[in-house]
């Protein structure tokens, strides 16, 4: 058979429309109601986590224009319905039927454990592998994602298999599914189709009649002329079916009880034996050994377009919008429309998504890309060889390159499996880039998160005084995003925020915490604990003390440091902003308090934080400078009012440049320059470092240039003296007595700082000597250093700083770096 | 645990009693009333509630783990029991025939038939639908040019006919005038006033006759053209299908060529949204609204191409035209323009208006009985044609309650033969001419505007023109101050609606045109245009500097 050689369809899509809210209605909070398609999207996320051998995995839920929802899930072999049609005349053996029965019950049982019901169980939704050995339930989540059908206009479930109580309006009882299952089995056992020719109304009447009968199976058998087969039925099986088709749900068994029934004994045994599948000589493509979520992600990267596939099958009909326009719309929203076209009806066809091109495309990749061996000695060179070329390309291109992403996804998946032992390697690889598919767990790993179930212990429900503020903020937090605007997203965000507040009695809820939490929730929507722990670790790392009730000292220090660093990297801009009194307090507080998550859309934050996660607590400052740098021309030409207006609604920032710039500055800045007393120290303090209480806020506010520690000066001197320019401000005598080699002596007493030009200093080629270097002003009189450094900034000299504790501290450096004449 | 039989079978409350030993090994009890049916998401909350009854120490002792386990199994059991009991009650009703079974059967059948394609009475695509698809396919093929050629030729015939009619009517007029003049000169000499009256009547009849004759000729010609055209399109599409598949996908953006240069115009690109920014174009222009709805084939222009490409696409062009609430009256000049050539795709504008008129009547009788605003889209199907006798649009005003639309309502006409609009939204506005009033953002006209934007979003109208002053003509007492206030209101509301539209899940408005009267003064135009960048935040130019060239 030619068909069996083809790789089976593994992915498929179904689509439907959500119910449209009538007219203009508002929710209880006065805000417009969330569209049902968004609510569906939020509810469906949970289903993606269900992984079981008897359930088709959910992979994606897409919200299209005009309230359309598209669901992508796993698919397997063919449906029971197709199987029966295809093999007409050739009936299923009784033990095959039992196998199906048992496995479907197994699937139901898993769903019961997750508090789910199916309610659309029918042969179309029971899939079997081509050899009939494995059964999976399909489309079982429709009931859950639509909140029991409340979000969609159409009824859920095939009426023929519907239990009487469901027909009468009950919703959500798993026993109704047991009924459906038994009805399907009756069909299989008797080789019949239930009421094949009856109209819906008559089927409904039949079912209601069953609801009043005593022996459902007998009645069915008589109706379908198979009373003899009924009599000949195995007693055990009949007993089980009788119970499953009890009119009163109380008497029906739960799926678990079904599975324990004695008639499945042989089935259980044969399943347990699990004969190795007959090898048809052809190994499965390597790709199919990868998790389906990864395969689907790659399929999308490879140009897979679910909408296009649906369109091809006629499931998304391109009806001309002009024909559907209403003729009259009244003020209250009621309208006169042309008749609704049938393209809006529920069409339950399943569209397969072809994997073959993807498999072929990836088939020429070597196996070590599929399964990277981290600890093999050849690992590094192999990886290098594969990816180094691509890593020169811009991030946006890398994120869309299928081979590259495949390589990265496989690599990070392996690294995450080995976490925390692979933390170091993970950090290294993350500095190249992070594959979007695994960003959530990768970030968590970068933040040293180790899930420990502590999240469940935190009280997330008891009312607190911050609840009101949280309630107000959540419906305004990144609501353009479908996940975050869904009711489920709101609930989750609320829980996370309350948990964080409860877990930090020393802190308070500052507005902005919601934005800060949003990226973590977005990335770990199905794993609240991971989201919470990431936030939990993120805040002390970058925002230590920011959430104190009185955080003014911390914020002031932070913003002063920001000003200093701006002067350090962008002296002219800093000069200009200072001259128009456009101080960071006016615009930068939300930047830093939310780590920019309040000012940028999520997709930009993700790239920004990819790099942020790798840096220390000073990194955000450089992002701030990078933003200013990008707006430099506008800012330099603007006065105070224009600047305020510009920042009131931050213009579009090119994130890639911002990231690159900030990283450059971050790397070019000695650590002590960014010293803040409120930051968590990364390493134990060295005597030559800037001490914790050394620099007070008042110093920061009066000194335009940051201070550098003797340790960093020493380090620069020893390792990269070409990047250092030391200006010695002491008198000539002192200088000749002892000085740092290659330092420039400009005695402070002799210079006139009135004119803001370097030439005025009369030092030959001073500008050339300072260009591209870190300029350290050294003096024994601190005030001199401050004044001189201010002069340099005014002259536009880049990277000016002051040696902390002045020249004398250099004496204490061991080994000696000074030379004396 | 006991069951609170609170009579209500839709839910019931059961008490959960949790026995545990505290840290001193004392026996303790925690209780909680739990309501069924149960939503599983609440479990953790209930655990919290129970824990809060206990000593805080118990949380640290991991009591929550055992508590959750027990609560879970309790809830599972009770939930199942509740459902089973509920079902039993229903089934008992069924057995005792206490409920209307036929109603269930009927409702079920209707539900399945109305909403599931599988069971619906299949109706094939309508003729309109098929024609739309054929046309759309054809227009995106090499036949486009021929289509336009044909349309132009057809339009020329109609144009010639109307011209002919006009000139004949005019000649007739002139000759009649002369005749009349000569008669009047002879009054009391050879003619009596009676003669003149007779002549007047006779002239009137002749004129009427001539007009009627032409009108029926025109009508016949238009009908003929329409049939011929549609047949031709359908025949063409069969051929094209054999040659090449669809060449361009649906939804190409039709750009707007403005053939009649409006007197003043300025364009802006804006970004809306607080974090995620959406880009829109704003164009402010001064023009007569009829210029936006001028006949398509009147002169050689590129617009015919654009309008044809866009007609069945998902980027339509719409115009908002204000109209007083006197029945379904559209702007006379626009009707005239629409009648300059045959409407091949939709009904001729008069017929559309007539239909809408009927629907308004039906609507009015309906809204008196049924609750209004019960739903959009499907509340009143197009089939409510109304039993009202087919009164023409010119029927004399009836004394009793006249059904009519109110301020803020609008009706919609569709066009394929106008220069810049596929869709005209006729928004009812009764602002009296010559006495400009003050309105606020809750005014019905503004809300009507919002409904229009909503309809536009739902039906893929991506270019929309709105009257920026909610007036089509300037008048003496529209002071500069008033205009600024009014424009600011409209701009701000439009901005708000556009931001809101991001969550409507429809098509995004790519271009919003703010239309000012064509007789606006240049200085006022400049002032109002200057307000646009202030109200809508204009996108900053992105300047990309190559940072690597700094060596």
Automatic annotation (TrEMBL), chain A:
Keywords: GTPase activation. The keyword Cytoplasm does not apply. It comes from the Eukaryota. Gene3D superfamilies: putative rabgap domain of human tbc1 domain family member 14 like domains, Rhodanese-like domain, Transferase(Phosphotransferase) domain 1, Ypt/Rab-GAP domain of gyp1p, domain 3. Residues 433-616 form the Rab-GAP TBC domain. Residues 1-264 form the Protein kinase domain. GO terms for biological process: Golgi organization. InterPro entries: Kinase-like_dom_sf, Prot_kinase_dom, Rab-GAP-TBC_dom, Rab-GAP_TBC_sf, Rhodanese-like_dom, Rhodanese-like_dom_sf. This is Protein kinase domain-containing protein. It comes from Drosophila willistoni. The lineage of its organism: Eukaryota, Metazoa, Ecdysozoa, Arthropoda, Hexapoda. The gene is Dwil\GK25626.
TrEMBL record, chain B:
The keyword Cytoplasm does not apply. Residues 57-107 form a coiled coil. Residues 365-399 are annotated as: Disordered. GO terms for cellular component: cytoplasm. Keywords: Coiled coil. Pfam families: Fy-3. Residues 371-396 have a biased composition (Low complexity). This is Uncharacterized protein. It comes from Drosophila willistoni.
